[in-house]
Protein: RRM domain-containing protein
Amino acid sequence: MEDEGKIFIGGLSFETTEDGVAEAFCKYGTIEKVDVIRDKETGRSRGFGFVKYDNVEDAKDAMEAMNGKQLDGRCIRVDAAGKSARRGGGGAGGCPRGGRFSHSRGRGGQERSYEGFAENIVV
Structure:
Protein backbone atom coordinates (compact mmCIF):
# COMPACT_ATOMS: atom_id res chain seq x y z
CA MET A 1 0.00 0.00 0.00
CA GLU A 2 1.28 3.42 -0.92
CA ASP A 3 0.25 5.12 2.35
CA GLU A 4 0.82 2.40 4.92
CA GLY A 5 -2.44 1.38 6.56
CA LYS A 6 -4.60 4.10 4.95
CA ILE A 7 -7.67 3.19 2.90
CA PHE A 8 -10.06 5.18 0.73
CA ILE A 9 -13.84 4.82 1.10
CA GLY A 10 -15.98 6.07 -1.78
CA GLY A 11 -19.73 6.20 -2.26
CA LEU A 12 -20.51 7.33 1.28
CA SER A 13 -23.92 8.76 2.08
CA PHE A 14 -23.84 12.51 2.60
CA GLU A 15 -25.17 11.82 6.11
CA THR A 16 -22.38 9.39 7.07
CA THR A 17 -20.17 10.74 9.86
CA GLU A 18 -16.68 9.91 11.07
CA ASP A 19 -18.26 8.04 13.99
CA GLY A 20 -20.36 5.95 11.61
CA VAL A 21 -17.33 5.04 9.50
CA ALA A 22 -15.28 4.22 12.61
CA GLU A 23 -18.06 1.98 13.93
CA ALA A 24 -18.27 0.07 10.64
CA PHE A 25 -14.49 -0.34 10.25
CA CYS A 26 -13.26 -0.77 13.85
CA LYS A 27 -13.92 -4.53 13.84
CA TYR A 28 -10.93 -5.02 11.53
CA GLY A 29 -8.30 -3.45 13.77
CA THR A 30 -7.17 -0.41 15.71
CA ILE A 31 -8.03 2.79 13.86
CA GLU A 32 -5.63 5.69 14.11
CA LYS A 33 -7.79 8.26 12.31
CA VAL A 34 -11.03 8.61 10.31
CA ASP A 35 -11.70 11.50 7.92
CA VAL A 36 -14.93 12.11 6.01
CA ILE A 37 -14.04 14.79 3.45
CA ARG A 38 -16.32 17.83 3.56
CA ASP A 39 -17.00 20.77 1.28
CA LYS A 40 -15.14 23.83 2.60
CA GLU A 41 -18.05 26.21 2.05
CA THR A 42 -21.06 24.13 3.08
CA GLY A 43 -19.53 21.61 5.48
CA ARG A 44 -21.50 18.87 3.70
CA SER A 45 -19.82 15.51 3.13
CA ARG A 46 -18.39 15.06 -0.36
CA GLY A 47 -19.23 11.34 -0.26
CA PHE A 48 -15.79 9.91 0.41
CA GLY A 49 -13.29 9.56 3.21
CA PHE A 50 -10.27 7.76 4.61
CA VAL A 51 -9.51 5.37 7.44
CA LYS A 52 -5.96 5.03 8.79
CA TYR A 53 -5.16 1.81 10.64
CA ASP A 54 -2.23 1.23 12.98
CA ASN A 55 -1.47 -2.01 11.12
CA VAL A 56 -1.22 -2.53 7.34
CA GLU A 57 -2.67 -6.05 7.57
CA ASP A 58 -5.76 -4.69 9.35
CA ALA A 59 -6.23 -2.20 6.51
CA LYS A 60 -5.99 -4.99 3.94
CA ASP A 61 -8.54 -7.06 5.90
CA ALA A 62 -10.92 -4.08 6.01
CA MET A 63 -10.54 -3.46 2.26
CA GLU A 64 -11.37 -7.05 1.42
CA ALA A 65 -14.28 -7.29 3.86
CA MET A 66 -15.94 -3.91 3.28
CA ASN A 67 -15.52 -3.32 -0.46
CA GLY A 68 -18.96 -3.51 -2.04
CA LYS A 69 -20.83 -3.60 1.28
CA GLN A 70 -23.69 -1.34 2.34
CA LEU A 71 -23.08 1.52 4.77
CA ASP A 72 -25.95 3.86 5.65
CA GLY A 73 -27.92 2.56 2.67
CA ARG A 74 -25.14 3.13 0.12
CA CYS A 75 -22.88 0.65 -1.60
CA ILE A 76 -19.33 1.71 -0.74
CA ARG A 77 -16.05 1.16 -2.56
CA VAL A 78 -12.93 0.57 -0.49
CA ASP A 79 -9.46 0.78 -1.95
CA ALA A 80 -5.89 1.61 -0.99
CA ALA A 81 -5.48 5.35 -0.38
CA GLY A 82 -3.22 7.27 -2.72
CA LYS A 83 -3.75 4.91 -5.63
CA SER A 84 -2.83 7.04 -8.63
CA ALA A 85 -5.51 5.74 -11.01
CA ARG A 86 -8.82 4.94 -9.38
CA ARG A 87 -10.59 1.93 -10.82
CA GLY A 88 -13.54 2.74 -12.98
CA GLY A 89 -16.44 0.85 -14.37
CA GLY A 90 -18.92 -0.42 -11.88
CA GLY A 91 -19.28 -1.64 -8.37
CA ALA A 92 -17.97 -4.53 -6.40
CA GLY A 93 -19.45 -7.37 -4.46
CA GLY A 94 -23.23 -7.39 -4.47
CA CYS A 95 -23.64 -3.81 -5.67
CA PRO A 96 -25.39 -3.03 -8.92
CA ARG A 97 -23.21 -1.94 -11.81
CA GLY A 98 -23.70 0.95 -14.16
CA GLY A 99 -26.86 2.95 -14.46
CA ARG A 100 -27.74 6.48 -15.48
CA PHE A 101 -28.49 9.51 -13.43
CA SER A 102 -28.54 13.28 -13.75
CA HIS A 103 -26.77 15.67 -11.48
CA SER A 104 -27.63 19.36 -11.17
CA ARG A 105 -24.89 21.66 -9.97
CA GLY A 106 -25.66 24.95 -8.27
CA ARG A 107 -23.10 26.84 -10.30
CA GLY A 108 -24.75 28.21 -13.41
CA GLY A 109 -27.63 25.74 -13.16
CA GLN A 110 -25.90 23.30 -15.49
CA GLU A 111 -27.33 19.80 -15.57
CA ARG A 112 -25.03 16.95 -16.44
CA SER A 113 -25.90 13.34 -17.22
CA TYR A 114 -23.50 10.56 -16.35
CA GLU A 115 -23.37 6.85 -16.94
CA GLY A 116 -21.92 4.61 -14.25
CA PHE A 117 -21.25 5.29 -10.60
CA ALA A 118 -20.66 8.63 -8.94
CA GLU A 119 -17.18 7.58 -7.80
CA ASN A 120 -16.11 7.58 -11.47
CA ILE A 121 -16.85 11.31 -11.73
CA VAL A 122 -14.09 13.83 -11.27
CA VAL A 123 -15.56 17.28 -10.61
Observations:
- The beta strands are 6-10, 31-38, 45-53, 70-71, 74-75, 77-80, 100-104, 111-115.
